[in-house]
Amino acid sequence: MRCYTLFFAVISAATFGCAQTISGGDATFHSSGLGSCGKSYSDADFVVAVDHATMSKYAGTITDPMRNPLCGRQMVITSPDNKVITVTVEDTCVTCSVGSVDLTRGAFQALAPLSVGIIHGISWTLV
Q1: Of 43, 29, 20, which Cα lies nearest the Cα of 123?
Q2: For this UniProt entry, which residues form the secretion signal (predicted)?
Q3: Which residues contact 20 (CB under 8 A, 6 or more apart)?
Q4: SS3 readout for the chain
């Protein structure tokens, strides 16, 4: 029985680390500040706030948001016109729908002008 338990634990750990691409979300932007992961960042930093449902899914039973396993992870975001950026997860977006993200101004501008406001149809992958 112990071997089977160990086998499933290894499979579960391996699955958690696999890259999964999420498509069809929106990207918005926000001003810099102190993120839910406990770090301050500037408008020029390439930082992302991930939707609350996704952050909660990865947190599991962790109640301290600064210990969320997504904090500090890299995310590759692709716009509908195939512009690609890499950002760091440092915040939670409580108003974002599942699969959508909120970027710092600098990160958003690498994909589109701020005047666009919302980029529809992005995809992202945690790396």
Answers
A1: 20
A2: 1-19
A3: 125, 126
A4: CHHHHHHHHHHHHHHHCCCCEEEEEEEEEECCEECCCCCEECCCCCEEEEEHHHHHHHHCCCCCHHHCCCCCCEEEEECCCCCEEEEEEEEEECCCCCCCEEEEHHHHHCCCCHHHCCEEEEEEEEC
Domain positions in the chain are 19-126
CATH top-level class for 19-126? mainly beta
Output b/e per residue, 12-42; b: 16+ Cβ within 10 A.
eeeeeeeeeebeebbbbbbebeebbbeeebe
pLDDT digits (tens, 9 = 90+) for 72-127: 999 999 999 999 999 999 999 999 999 999 999 999 999 999 999 999 999 999 99
Tokens of 42: 């500037």
> What per-residue confidence (pLDDT) applies to 81?
97
CA atoms of 101 and 86, how far apart (whole Å): 13
| Other beta carbons less than 10 A from residue 117's beta carbon | 11
